[in-house]
Design goal:
By secondary structure, this protein is α+β, with helices and mostly antiparallel strands. The protein contains two helices and four strands; from the N terminus they run βαββαβ. The model has no long low-confidence stretch (mean pLDDT 88).
């Protein structure tokens, strides 16, 4: 479980964006999307720490033809996100690995919006 440096997120009243990018084999894409819509997102947002879910498909494909999807949520604070990751995040990891085994790979990126 990754911990994030609070010192890197210094601006007050700035939402944190938590992005997870998944690599999904072609034959599992429909099942994966149903799972994300009907199970993953509802569990992610049930305690209201993660807000405004957005799912996008990455245009490029992996070398083996798998598609990639990016799922992002917004969180009010880094502390709330860390607590969510320890509890809900672990539950979601268990759900996705139980359903898909090692067929779905993912990595998370933590982002901070910058005013233009």
């Amino acid at each position: 479980m990754q911990r994030y440096s609070k010192s890197k997120f210094t601006e007050k009243n700035t939402m944190i964006i938590y992005n997870t990018t998944f690599s999904v084999p072609t034959e599992l894409q429909n099942k994966f999307l149903d799972f994300i819509r009907n199970e993953y997102i509802p569990v992610s947002t049930q305690n209201h720490v993660m807000k405004e879910p957005r799912l996008t498909r990455v245009f490029s494909k992996d070398d083996n033809g798998d598609a990639s999807y990016a799922l992002e949520f917004k969180s009010d604070t880094i502390e709330a996100l860390e607590e969510w990751n320890k509890t809900v995040g672990r539950k979601l990891y268990f759900l996705i690995t139980t359903r898909f085994g090692q067929n779905i790979q993912g990595f998370a990126t933590l982002l901070q919006p910058i005013d233009l």
